[in-house]
Design brief:
The chain has about 170 residues and is mainly alpha-helical. About 65% of the residues lie in helices and about 5% in strands. The longest helix is centred in the first third of the chain and has 55 residues.
Length: about 170
């Protein structure tokens, strides 16, 4: 047996120590990657769970016969119809309808069921009634008409309408 002072042993020990340090570093990097991926996986699973809950809630609301939903042909889509339109818009990744501003507008029409002018919508949403606000609102309402969520029964009047959405 060679002693530590013998030929080749110190360089062999140094080589082993260098390899050990290299593998130790690699193991640490892999642990960090695993921790990062685990966090990312947890966030993705949490988002999936929230989406599943949202989907189940929407299905439950749409299936519930407890609150009468006006017939689309009777003049308005109502809350149930608007919910269907929103689910469809999300499925189609319609960014316009999914934005908070548009959701506020849609919620206003869905809950009130009223026929409104642009200026009235601005007032209900606590926006200014200056021409720039009213014209901005008019373009948003026109986009919602194009998507079949609102209807414009006469010039400048808007209401809930889901016939183009199939509800």
């Amino acid at each position: 047996m060679l002693s530590e002072g013998g030929c080749g042993v110190p360089s062999l020990m140094e080589a082993l120590e260098a390899r050990r340090a290299e593998v130790l570093g690699q193991a640490e990097r892999l642990r960090e990657q695993i921790a990062g991926l685990s966090e990312e996986l947890s966030r993705a699973e949490e988002r999936l769970a929230r989406l599943q809950i949202a989907r189940e809630t929407v299905e439950e609301v749409l299936a519930a016969p407890s609150s009468p939903v006006p017939d689309a042909d009777a003049g308005g889509g109502g809350v149930g119809g608007v919910a269907v339109a929103l689910v469809k818009a999300e499925a189609e990744l319609d960014v316009t309808v999914m934005s908070p501003e548009y959701r506020e507008i849609i919620a206003l029409f869905a809950t009130s069921g009223a026929v409104m002018r642009c200026k009235e919508v601005c007032q209900h949403l606590s926006l200014g009634t200056e021409p720039r606000h009213v014209e901005g609102m008019r373009s948003k309402l026109k986009r919602l008409v194009e998507r079949g969520i609102l209807a414009e029964p006469s010039s400048g009047l808007f209401k809930v309408d889901g016939r183009k959405q199939g509800w």
